[in-house]
Amino acid sequence: MRIGMIGLGRMGANMTRRLLDGGHQVVAHDLREEAIETAEVAGAEGARSLDELSVMLAPPRVAWMMVPAGGPTEATINALAERFSPGDIIVDGGNSNYKDSMRRAEALRSRDLHFVDVGTSGGIWGLTEGYSLMIGGEAAAVEQLRPLFETLAPGAELGWGHVGPAGAGHFVKMVHNGIEYGMMQALAEGFEIMKSKQEFGLDLTQIAEVWRHGSVVRSWLLDLIARALADDPELAGIRAWVPDSGEGRWTVAEAIDLDVPAPVITLALLQRLQSRAEEPFSFRLLAALRQQFGGHAVRKA
Question: How confident is the model at residue 89 (pLDDT cuts 50, 70, 90)?
Fold first, then answer.
């Protein structure tokens, strides 16, 4: 199958390589010339513009975008819509908000263009392990793309699925990432507790390895913890600064809108925000309040 891949960041580049290894033809485009040249070395055809890409893809065209959510995705979709013909398919494999995906699908439908939103999980390991793909869109368009999904996923019938109409793929990926926040936070807190129990002299790297086999908490996240601790048991080279890319916030907002309590995911998000504060004012104020009403000592800066 012939496909245009737009956006050759780490994940887009790895997806391109996996598609090429699976026997597909890829026309690769990126704003960076060096990224296109790297894709060409891997076997893709390079397109230096969206005009060139649209000409190099024969109808019905398929363009798969792996570009940042928000403005870049919006601009790319609008540009493709101007160049594509009825029956062509635009795939958004990035982390767009599902409401944006629903709106974009409706706008493209008025042009007789198909839109498929694919929540993509797998990170840097997707090249070798395969990607988990959560797919939204019209059934006929999804079925047309089946060969691509079967190649990118861990197996032809594993790790991918058509979960619903346009927007559903990104919605499920949003919730997936919210769950991920909670799981990561629980693991991090557990290891923090063990690290603080200094009298036992616990070897956290050893414990991570023990838990990886047979334990009810064994998981890929635990595998990655074991790997990180083996590289640097004290994590001395890493700051306690945890960013978030948006999906956790959207999950919490959606839970509130649906009146669904989600305390674990919400607190995990708040902990990430807390990690970025240098001497938080709120904590300084708490210390001042204890001094004011109880005469408790405070530590001076």
Answer: very high
Q: Which of 173, 197, 209, 279 is catalytic?
A: 173
Count of positions (residues) in the chain: 301
Q: Which of helix, strand or coil describes residue 144?
A: helix
The CA distance from 121 to 64, in Å, is: 15
Spatial CA neighbour of 138 closest among 159, 111, 174, 167: 167
For the record, the structure tokens of 55 come out as 């000409």
> 176 near 119, Cβ under 8 Å?
yes
The pLDDT tens digits for 128-156 are 999 999 999 999 999 999 999 999 999 99
238: Cβ contacts below 8 Å, ≥ 6 apart? 232
Do 12 and 71 form a contact (C-beta atoms < 8 A)?
no
Q: Position 44: which residue type?
A: A
Chain center to CA of 62: 22
Count CB neighbours of 9 within 10 A: 15
CA distance readout (Å), 158 to 127, 143, 161, 288: 15, 15, 8, 56
Question: Cβ contacts of residue 219 below 8 Å, gap of 6+?
Answer: 183
Q: Is the peptide bond before 60 cis (omega within 30 degrees of 0)?
A: yes
DSSP letters for 19-73: HHHTT-EEEEE-S-HHHHHHHHHHTPEE-SSHHHHHHHSPSSPEEEE---TTHHH
DSSP class per residue in 172-231? HHHHHHHHHHHHHHHHHHHHHHHHH-GGGT--HHHHHHHHTTT-TT--HHHHHHHHHHHH
Q: Which of 180, 197, 247, 279 is catalytic?
A: 180
Check: pTM over 0.85? Answer yes or no: yes
Q: Is 180 a catalytic residue?
A: yes
